[in-house]
Specification:
The chain has 243 residues and is an alpha/beta fold. It has a single domain (10-240), classed as Rossmann fold. It contains 8 helices and 10 strands. It has helices spanning 22-32, 61-82, 96-109, 152-163, 192-198, 210-218, 224-227, 230-240, and strands at residues 36-42, 48-53, 88-91, 116-124, 130-134, 140-144, 167-176, 180-183, 186-191, 203-209. The strands form 3 sheets. It has a 6-stranded mixed sheet with strand order 5-4-3-6-7-10, with helices on both faces. β8 and β9 form a beta hairpin. The longest helix is centred in the N-terminal third of the chain and has 22 residues, at 61-82. The protein is globular, with a radius of gyration of 18 Å. The chain starts with 21 loop residues before the first helix and ends with a helix.
Length: 243
């Protein structure tokens, strides 16, 4: 069983190894892997974002394996910090499926062998049938996904988990965009992460946040080309961000 955390600023990350900023490492990895890109991208909310995080581009064994290491390191660090535990992993269709699978492989490699399950978008009417695949949902369940824009996948996952008699316990994501969600076309006062934390009562663990991306773009590790995107990303956060 392992634990998760609700991350704050880079300087105050509980459980981070001394002298090592896990979030900063992850941001640099995502940039170098081409998963974090800069330019002008339209979000689901219709906003023009100066950056885009596409976890689908963790598209080979080496990148997916390293991503799983980041998830596992963050989770195991929080086990030491807070003792928050879970009994199995759930990956919502579709991006959550390979993330959950890769995570449990990495946790098993580290000596924590946990079951996992995932769902189909459409129920299967032959074979085992239904929408759930993998281990039986039971105990405290960790939901794993890439980002949380509207929280829809998480809410659907919670319903599936509760219907199976298990407890949706926490959520792990790669990047917290720290931006306002939208409801009926209007900006909400909270982000999807805050909604899941405060309204649904689940703890959310993010490997990195938008604040970490800004810290990276403003730091010495980013070259001049990357630094040029800092003002646009900062302006986007000032307009749509939450704290």
């Amino acid at each position: 069983m392992v634990g998760v955390e609700n991350l704050s600023s880079p300087a105050a990350r509980p459980g981070a190894p001394p002298g090592q900023d896990l979030a900063g490492e992850f941001v640099q990895f995502a940039v170098e892997a081409g998963v974090l890109r800069f330019g002008q991208f339209k979000t689901k909310a219709g906003r023009l974002s100066p950056y885009f995080f596409n976890a689908g581009l963790f598209d080979d064994g080496a990148k997916l394996g390293r991503l799983a290491q980041f998830y596992a390191r963050r989770l195991l660090a929080e086990e030491q910090a807070s003792g928050l535990r879970f009994d199995m992993v759930f990956g919502p269709a579709y991006k959550g499926i390979p993330l959950a699978a890769a995570l449990v492989v990495e946790l098993a490699r580290l000596g924590r062998n946990l079951p996992f399950a995932y769902n189909r978008k459409e129920a299967k009417d032959h074979g085992e049938g239904g929408t759930l695949v993998g281990a039986r949902l039971e105990g405290r369940v960790l939901i794993v996904d890439d980002v949380m824009s509207a929280g829809t996948a998480v809410r659907e996952s919670i319903e599936l988990i509760r219907a199976a008699g298990a407890t949706a316990h926490a959520v792990a994501i790669a990047l917290d965009r720290q931006e306002r969600a939208t409801e009926d076309g209007a900006d909400s006062p909270w982000s999807a992460v805050q909604y899941v934390q405060q309204r649904l009562g689940l703890q959310v663990c993010a490997i990195a946040q938008l604040a970490d991306l800004l810290h990276y773009l403003h730091g010495d590790q980013a070259g001049a080309d990357l630094k040029a995107h800092y003002p646009a990303v900062l302006a986007y956060r000032e307009r749509y961000g939450v704290h």
